[in-house]
Amino acid sequence: MGLGNVIAIGAVGIISRVFLKVFSRTTVVNYDRLLKYLVEREKDQPVITLMNHSSTLDDPMLWGLVPLRTLFSWNSNIRWVMGAKELTFTNPLTAWFFTNGRTIPTVRGHGIFQPAVNEAIRRMRDEGAWIHVFPEGYVNQGGAGMRPLRWGVARIISASKSAKFPTVLPIWHTGEAHIPHHTSSCCCCYYYYYYQWREDTCSNAN
Q: Which range marks the domain in which residue 161 is found?
């Protein structure tokens, strides 16, 4: 990673970590598996994480749980995330920030063969990268479970095969849907986050 990556990822990681450790009560199930499959994996082992999307803060807030040495490492294998281009790359400043935060600008509605999906496949196949995806395609606070997954996820998994088949790691979390809207003046409230890595799901990723 370059200096811009370390600054953006490290700074946001610290803020997320403070939120999770100080201003909330956080329970993580199977944290050892999180480290095993995401942080301690071999550098050429591609991995894709799939997560429900209940808040615009799901990413990067969740990754405040990874060790600080990962957030500030020059050789970090921290995730690349597919983010909505119309929301994240709105001006030169946000473009710099999200680019250095390892966000792949994705145009919703442009199909599974758009440049963003191709880049995700290339990074997994050629670099053994970790790609993070919200397969629903948008924030879902309905509370009735996940909506149908977008087809691009299947293409990324099937087309990114290299010497090693990619690890597929589903993640389910609850609690962040209760965070006030981004226009709210309330910033330092106590929330309850519950991140659950299902043991049977993680085992299937072997």
A: 3-177+187-204
